[in-house]
Design goal:
Number of helices: 10
Strand order of the largest sheet: 3-2-1-4-5-6-7
Largest sheet: 7 strands, parallel
Mean pLDDT: 92
Low-confidence stretches: none
Shape: globular
CATH class: Alpha Beta
CATH architecture: 3-Layer(aba) Sandwich
Structural class: alpha/beta
């Protein structure tokens, strides 16, 4: 087996990346296309998705195709997977990325409908996309990269529903890695920590003291700063490539050291339960 670059390995392949209109998903779309992968992505915000596709396609590397889709609509999700194969004749990578962190509240302050919304977005969509993509991934000996969270390893106040979905992604990854090994399909899990995405900016803007909120959050990982979406995308690209051909069922934490070492165990001084009860991030 000779040495080769990720670009040499990935060029001409086809990937589906859910949640491509912002944050980690958007960074993954750009990075995959930059190395010559043809990417089909989706999201609810049509203007953002179409603008991203235009930007990428002007570079004339990997093709980017955007479809409007709320991943809770599993029939629409299924149809996009079918459309991907019809257009490109193959599917090599599925990146399950669409999801959201809905803010922090005690469990009894969430309605059952809101909890179902979290589960349908952050968990059911992963299962559905994997189910419908697997026949094509088996044919190409491709792979799945799930975007989980450090919350699957550790937990945070007021996040019972969200943390439940991220813990489930850990379990799904391992089970699918076992089930699909005989078919040559690898399944791995990227677990980001605090990443400076649009959602974190929105959360910060809603704080009474945004500057101190950022300072406190910077201090909960050893590297002293939030990660960048591109730093997560590099890890995703690696696991999707043949450079990771002997890696399956793995959890790769991209956290700046959030989950390791000693530290004071105190309540988050910037979590105001009453304000959290009134607000819902979407």
């Amino acid at each position: 087996m000779g040495y080769f670059s990720i670009e040499e390995n990935m060029k001409g392949k086809t990937a589906i990346i859910t949640g491509g209109t912002s944050g980690i998903g958007k960074a993954c779309v750009r990075m995959f296309c930059e190395v010559g992968v043809n990417v089909v992505t989706m999201g609810r915000r049509v203007e953002l998705g179409e603008a991203l596709a235009r930007e990428i396609n002007e570079k004339n590397k990997g093709i980017c195709v955007f479809y409007e889709c709320d991943v809770k609509n599993v029939d629409r999700l299924h149809s996009i997977i079918e459309l991907t194969f019809e257009r490109f004749g193959r599917l090599d990578v599925l990146v399950n990325c669409a999801g959201y962190f809905p803010g922090q509240r005690r469990l009894d302050d969430w309605s059952i409908e809101e909890i179902r919304d979290i589960i349908d977005t952050n968990l059911m969509a992963y299962l559905a996309a994997s189910k419908y993509a697997l026949p094509y991934l088996r044919a190409s000996k491709g792979n799945i990269v799930n975007i989980g969270s450090v919350h699957g390893t550790t937990s945070v106040q007021g996040s019972a529903g969200y943390d439940a979905t991220k813990g489930a992604i850990d379990a799904i990854t391992k089970t699918l890695a076992i089930d699909e090994a005989e078919n040559g399909v690898r399944v791995n899990n990227i677990k980001p920590g605090l990443i400076a995405t649009e959602m974190f900016e929105i959360t910060t803007s809603r704080q009474q003291d945004p500057e101190r909120f950022v300072e406190w959050n910077n201090g909960v990982q050893w590297l002293g700063r939030p990660g960048k979406a591109e730093e997560v995308a590099y890890a995703v690209l690696f696991l999707a490539s043949d450079q990771a051909s002997f890696i399956t069922g793995a959890e790769l934490l991209v956290t700046g050291g959030y989950e390791i070492g000693e530290g004071q165990k105190v309540s988050n001084p910037y979590l105001n339960w009453e304000m959290a009860k009134m607000a819902r991030l979407k």
